[in-house]
Amino acid sequence: MPALPVLVLASSSPRRLRLLESIGIVPDRITSPCVDETPLPAETPRQLAARLARLKAAADGGAYVLAADTVVAVGRRVLGKPADAAAALAGLRLLSGRAHRVFTGVALRLPDGRVVTRLSESRVRFARLSEAQMRAYVASGEWDGKAGGYAVQGVASSFVRGLTGSHSGVMGLPLFETAQLLRGAGWKIP
Known about the structure:
Blueprint: E1 7-10, H1 14-22, E2 29-31, H2 45-58, E3 64-74, E4 77-79, H3 85-95, E5 99-109, E6 115-126, H4 131-140, E7 160-164, H5 167-171, H6 175-184
Parallel strand pairs: 1-2, 1-3
Antiparallel strand pairs: 3-4, 3-5, 5-6, 6-7
């Protein structure tokens, strides 16, 4: 039986690793690429997610490099990872009672240097949140390090009135799109 090619996951996110493992893929190595995530002038949230995923995939010299980036947006406004509790609270106030979009770009760099990409787009609608709910959520610390300042797989799942699109994409790695990329590169996925 031929050996499987080497796969590098270019993400330090434990949730992305768990999602990848849930479809039977275990990376040989994990790296944490350091890229500037500042949006370019006139760059849309969709373009930002795709560009950052490509940059992260190019940041490592592995045989196959899989990377992803998630962008939460209200209109064209990008809600990044909050810098502190005050920013997390401001983000929740903006999301409360309204819909927003979550874009997750996935990129796979092949051994020949080509990069293939997919993009997941989901629409998430939050319930109207009370000030007490928002403050309790911020106090939980779950928002820390999360795009948009919330984790849909955690306590914040109780805020979601509806989700259209990829639940795993909102979590940070859209499994359908990821599986498409890997299958296209010759991976056998159960």
